[in-house]
Amino acid sequence: MNVGLHLLFNKDSYLSFSYSYNNDTRIGKKFIEYKNDEQFEKEVRKYVELANTYVLKYRSFRDVNYAKQYIVNELNDSDWNPYIKSVFCFLEDDQGNGKKYYGKFIREPYFKSIIEKDNYPIDITKLNKDYVINIISEQRKFWHSKSSMKKMKTIENYER
Predict the structure, then answer these.
(1) Residue 61 domain flag
(2) Is 150 helix (H, G, I), strand (E, B) or coil?
(3) Does 62 map to a domain?
């Protein structure tokens, strides 16, 4: 069972886990071997209860200030984490930390081709809350256009 978040400030045309607790998307590390109904149900329920705790935790990310504090304090600076941290900082108008983390992201050699391909800004001065909200708005429109995502709210349905 996998539980994670797809953050709509990534410029992806596919759904994936942008964030999952401890960067580990798997709830339970092994498949449950079926021996009988009672045993199987008991073990599956444990996974479901654990998954529920993650879902409830992720719902608290609707409070952007909470999400920013959590993400900045819990994530290390590897992989996409500096980018994720920067975006939450920009959403909370924390320009200083947003620029610091974004700078780490664009200086990482691994991301050079991704930054060029997806047209991420190199000029950090162009980044702010409005820039991030615009990316989220574009992603919502993109996903809302998919027949399976028609129920997804557009950015206009949210207060800024």
Answers:
(1) no
(2) coil
(3) no
Instruction: Write the CA distances from 45 to 1, 92, 156, integer angstroms.
Output: 11, 38, 38
How far is residue 5's CA from residue 100's CA, in Å, rounded to a whole number?
24
Q: Which two tokens stand for residue 73?
A: 């304090």
**Alpha carbon 96 to chain centroid distance?**
21
Q: pLDDT tens per residue, the chain (160 residues)?
A: 667 777 777 766 766 666 655 544 455 667 788 999 999 999 889 888 888 888 888 889 889 999 999 889 988 888 888 998 999 999 999 999 999 999 999 999 988 888 888 888 999 988 999 999 888 888 888 877 878 777 766 665 555 4
Residue at 86 is within a domain = yes
Cα 34 to Cα 48, 51, 111, distances in angstroms: 16, 20, 43
Contact 9, 135 (CB under 8 A): yes
Q: Which residue range(s) make up the domain with 128? A: 78-155
Whole-angstrom Cα distance, residue 5 to residue 20? 6
Total domains present in the chain: 1
In the structure encoding, which two tokens stand for residue 72, read together? Answer: 């900045």
